[in-house]
TrEMBL record:
Belongs to the MHC class I family. This is Ig-like domain-containing protein. Keywords: Glycoprotein, Immunoglobulin domain, Membrane, Signal, Transmembrane, Transmembrane helix. It comes from Culter alburnus (Topmouth culter). Residues 326-346 are annotated as: Disordered. Gene3D superfamilies: Immunoglobulins, MHC class I-like antigen recognition-like. Residues 199-287 form the Ig-like domain. One of its GO terms (cellular component) is external side of plasma membrane. Pfam families: C1-set, MHC_I. The keyword Transmembrane helix applies. The chain crosses the membrane at residues 296-320. It comes from the Eukaryota.
Length: 346
């Protein structure tokens, strides 16, 4: 009979409280059944607004944004996003030319936003561009310069870094304006966004020869670190870290797997260490569960969630702009009216 071994080990939980706001914009080509443009706004990795080119309206995804913003906000957000539909369509064609492509399904995405550490006050910008799921351009916020790992990104990087006005605008937005909106949204949703829920942590193994899976679930906020220990020291070999995934109740789950032989497991002391929000929890009970319906079902559900996130444009990053380089512009004429900022314009 197949069994799944569930091992609950000592778990240390500790981390600083960090919050983030980001927008993920996605354009796709030649996919009839999917919107050619989508935009998802997220606070602490929870979607709070959504727009696509089919509905052509920015809509609320949480009660706290719905209750705190009125018609002017939604009209303004909808008009801005609608204006970017032709820009993304044009940019996909330009990107295809840059990458010597004449047809096929292609994806342009942009992720941008900011992070704030509640305890230290440290700020950081989140800006990543890419094409067809590959990294293209990112912002080094400490050095305040754009960088690229590929030749196709060089013209854009050179153009942006040499545009002093643009760089000052970006610096102001990510260090001030974006942070102000993040704080505002955190205040809107403080009853849910500032709650803290510790994770439940377990080790799962389908067969003695299978990888051991460290599964942390039910935690909030999303910031969590999972590491492996071998005989009291950090262990990084044969380790695969999974994606952060949402649960239906608004909490999160994450996994890390360790490939290890049964003999090595017996001869050494392995443990999984999860860090989250300054709390400590210790479990040392070992149980054997017959069958694989419950734990494996969790894993299968997690994989399905990954596919869903990709489809709504909430995973992966990319955008390619203009032959001379993309030009992110302010989300509105008056930046104080909108939390959006770095959007593409051909």
């Amino acid at each position: 009979m197949r069994t799944v071994v569930l091992l609950l080990l000592g778990v240390h939980l500790a981390n600083a409280v960090s919050h983030s706001m980001k927008y993920i914009l996605t354009g796709v080509s030649e996919v009839d059944s999917f919107p050619e443009y989508t935009a998802v706004g997220m606070v602490d990795d929870i979607p709070f607004v959504y727009f696509d080119s089919n509905i052509k309206r920015m809509i609320p995804k949480t009660e706290w944004i719905k209750e705190n913003e009125g018609a002017d906000y939604w009209n303004r957000e909808s008009q801005r996003e609608s204006a970017y539909i032709p820009a993304f369509k044009n940019n996909i064609q330009i990107a295809m030319q840059r990458f010597n492509q004449s047809a096929g399904v292609h994806t342009l995405q942009l992720m941008y936003g900011c992070k704030l550490d509640d305890q230290t006050g440290a700020k950081d910008a989140l800006v990543q561009f890419g094409y067809d799921g590959e990294d293209l351009i990112s912002l080094d916020f400490k050095e305040m310069r754009y960088i690229t790992p590929v030749q196709q990104g060089i013209p854009s990087v050179q153009k942006w870094n040499n545009d002093k006005g643009r760089m000052e605008n970006d610096k102001h937005y990510f260090s001030s304006e974006c942070i102000d909106w993040l704080k505002k949204y955190l205040d809107y949703g403080k009853s849910s966004l500032k709650k803290t829920v510790s994770p439940q942590v377990s080790l799962l193994q389908k067969y003695p020869s299978s990888p051991v899976l460290c599964h942390a679930t039910g935690f909030y906020p999303s910031g969590v670190t999972i590491t492996w220990m071998k005989n009291g020291r950090e262990h990084h070999e044969d380790v695969d870290l999974g994606e952060l995934l949402p649960n239906e109740d608004g909490t999160f789950q994450k996994t890390s797997s360790l490939r290890v032989t049964p003999d090595e497991w017996k001869k050494n002391q392995f443990s999984c260490v999860v860090e989250h929000q300054g709390k400590t929890k210790t479990e040392d009970e070992i149980r054997t569960i017959g069958g694989d319906s419950v734990p494996i079902g969790i894993i299968v559900g997690a994989l399905a969630a990954v596919v869903l996130l990709i489809l709504i444009g909430a995973a992966g990053y990319a955008v390619y702009k203009k032959k001379q380089g993309f030009k992110p512009v302010s989300g509105s004429d008056d930046g104080s009216n909108s939390s959006a900022q770095a959007v593409p314009q051909a």
